[in-house]
């Protein structure tokens, strides 16, 4: 994390550990605020990869699951990077900065491996790839009133999800969430001014509260514990516009396409609540007596404290086990998952009804 930005946040009341803002106040209160009111959250726990050069668009288009040609100064997209076996190394949001450079936002813990892999394929392409995390500050805002507050400070905001606008050197991107939700990127001085203005109407929160909104939106994230764990369709990427089936080849494309067109998807991502004091982590195993798979019942994608107590989570689960509504964390006598509705329709049989 940028040292002076870290100092700015700590002065504002942030508790910073391991280069990320843990919280500003009680984590349960922050979770409640995230789901009901206006919040502002530092996003330094995400890395920002910057890609420039004459061949940048074509190079990125040939590497990722989504159609990079659709990304413009006004439009962002969810995207992913796969192995040759179609397993996701990273899920990221791809957009363009005010200077035209491509930017990829992903969890800090997977960015080093991502950069190493991507740079292997540059070869003779006119492309430059750098980690811009220390030079580009970033935070998010969400809530029923943040649109008016943000527009009052910058003049214009994106009207639709995935939309992008630029105000000078500031880039503002709208992303899915239960309320209007935006990510903002820019130079430190201007970002500090915006934070100060927005914090007058929005409650500062830590990374858990922000990630809870991704769980509510059922947007998957790949963390260190789930690198190469999922084919895109297992994490519902085709349902959140994170995969294009009309573009050309990319690593893993044959396997991803075969799963889509042969209809042999046996696992998908569910949203659930779990009543436990023990925090689940990405990659934690799930158990069901109904599973006959040698690969296990499923894995946790992400889990965050719920304002109702326990944890809300996303998990990739065998479809037949989820439909039997008998899935537990870790083992047979572990806490049971109570399935919740997804915010978008699915392509398979109906999900278990919420409890």
Keywords:
355 residues; alpha+beta; Gyrase A, domain 2; Elongation Factor Tu (Ef-tu), domain 3; 6-stranded mixed β-sheet; 6-stranded antiparallel β-sheet; 19 strands; 23% helix
Overall pLDDT score:
95
Helical fraction equals 10-25%
Question: Which stretches of 5+ consecutive residues score pLDDT under 50?
Answer: 349-355
The CATH architecture of the largest domain would be 2-Layer Sandwich
The sequence of SSEs as H and E is HEEHEEHEEEHEEHEEEHEHHEEEEHEE
Order of strands in the sheet with most strands: 10-11-12-9-3-13
Amino-to-carboxy terminus distance: 41 Å
* General form: globular
The structural class is alpha+beta
**Major beta sheet, specifics?**
6 strands, mixed
Task: State the domain count.
Answer: 2
Per CATH, what is the topology of the largest domain?
A: Gyrase A, domain 2
Total count of helical runs of at least 4 residues? 9
- What would CATH call the homologous superfamily of the largest domain? Probable tRNA modification gtpase trme, domain 1
Number of strands: 19
State which percent range the strand residues make up: 25-35%
Which CATH C-level class of the largest domain is it? Alpha Beta
- The radius of gyration is 20 Å
GO biological process, one term: iron-sulfur cluster assembly
Protein name: GCVT N-terminal domain-containing protein
Pfam families: GCV_T (PF01571)
Binding site for substrate: 183
